[in-house]
């Protein structure tokens, strides 16, 4: 029977999963169709709100950043369950068959090949998703043989954490990283993982990158950029504390740094007031829609509720909206 070395299977599984994480971080402008995860994976990342289309391309969400801090097995489970739900078209029978298959993989022989034609319909339908996540390896798309990878064989056995995020047990799939943050906001990241450096670059202005060290500054602008992408101050602080070097006092980043990160977030969240005029005497939804569209096209709409048939427009445009209502005889 066919066999593949355990080293080759482990390398394949790692490459596949890292391509998903790299795409989620979204820091590699040179990614090609070969390194990008399949469209089914990208759609799943969007469906579970780990990625969001901002109009300027796909960006990681706050939920996506939190996802990166989870242990690798719970990460795989989150995405796997969404993919299984998609390929099974809601069939409870198909989902059960896939879960049974995952339990069976737990007892598979390392490096041994198995026939796809011997499987039930559920696992067959989910096979491409399992390959895309690095849980199984297929020599070719047409091959009837699959090989469970190390992650695939251990997936069921490593679910005891319940998916909890542990500050000191951040996802091993990102690669090891030890961080020192000084009171002057300079950051030193000791890591060989490009993925870790790309992740840190989401909220740090990087200045130097060496094979095993990256140096940067935590600045107002770098943190604001992260905040604009939906990453919270607490998530940034939790990540830095999770990777804080044992050489750091108390094993955490300096308090003045964490306080300033929170302050920058508070400045961003300050309430801004705008004067406006409220319109709420619309008799029909059609009338409301017409006026709302007019205000929107003038860039004057501040707030609206179709259910309440209520519209607030900028002060500067109130007279024009009133004229529009009268000229169109909108009650």
Overview of the structural elements:
It is a single chain. Helices cover 44% and strands 15% of the residues. The chain folds into three domains: 6-154, no CATH class; 175-268, no CATH class; 276-327, Alpha-Beta Plaits. The longest helix is centred in the first third of the chain and has 20 residues, at 6-25. The radius of gyration is 26 Å and the shape is flat. It has 331 residues and is α+β, with helices and mostly antiparallel strands. α2 (39-47) crosses α4, α5 crosses α6 and α10 (233-242) packs antiparallel against α11 (255-268). Mean pLDDT is 85; it is low at 160-172. A hairpin with a 7-residue loop joins β4 and β5. One of its GO terms (biological process) is nucleotide-excision repair. Pfam families: Tfb2, Tfb2_C.
């Amino acid at each position: 029977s066919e066999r593949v070395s355990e080293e080759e299977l482990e390398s394949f599984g790692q490459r596949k999963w890292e391509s998903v994480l790299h795409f989620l971080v979204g820091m590699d402008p040179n990614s090609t169709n070969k390194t990008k995860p399949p469209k089914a994976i990208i759609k799943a990342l969007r469906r579970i709100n780990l990625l969001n289309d901002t109009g300027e391309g796909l960006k990681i969400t706050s939920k996506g950043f939190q996802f990166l801090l989870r242990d690798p097995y719970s990460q795989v489970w989150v995405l796997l369950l969404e993919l299984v739900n998609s390929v099974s078209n809601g069939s409870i029978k198909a989902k059960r068959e896939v879960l049974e298959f995952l339990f069976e993989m737990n007892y598979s022989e390392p490096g041994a090949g198995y026939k796809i034609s011997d499987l039930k319909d559920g696992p067959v339908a989910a096979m491409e998703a399992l390959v895309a996540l690095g849980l199984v390896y297929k020599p070719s798309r047409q091959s009837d043989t699959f090989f469970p990878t190390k992650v695939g064989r251990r997936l069921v056995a490593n679910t005891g954490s319940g998916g909890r995020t542990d500050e000191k047990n951040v996802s091993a799939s990102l690669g090891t990283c030890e961080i020192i943050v000084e009171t002057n906001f300079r950051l030193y990241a000791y890591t060989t993982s490009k993925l870790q450096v790309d992740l840190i670059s989401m909220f740090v202005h990087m200045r130097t990158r060496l094979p095993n060290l990256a140096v940067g500054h935590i600045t107002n602008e770098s943190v604001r950029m992260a905040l604009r992408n939906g990453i919270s101050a607490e998530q940034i602080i939790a990540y830095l504390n999770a990777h804080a070097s044992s050489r750091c006092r108390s094993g955490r980043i300096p308090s003045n740094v964490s306080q300033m990160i929170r302050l920058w977030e508070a400045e961003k969240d300050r309430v801004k007031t705008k004067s406006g005029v409220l319109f709420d005497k619309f008799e029909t939804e059609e009338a409301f829609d017409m006026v709302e569209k007019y205000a929107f096209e003038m860039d004057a709409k501040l707030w609206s509720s179709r259910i309440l048939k209520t519209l607030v427009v900028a002060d500067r445009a109130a007279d024009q909206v009133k004229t529009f209502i009268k000229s169109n005889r909108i009650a």
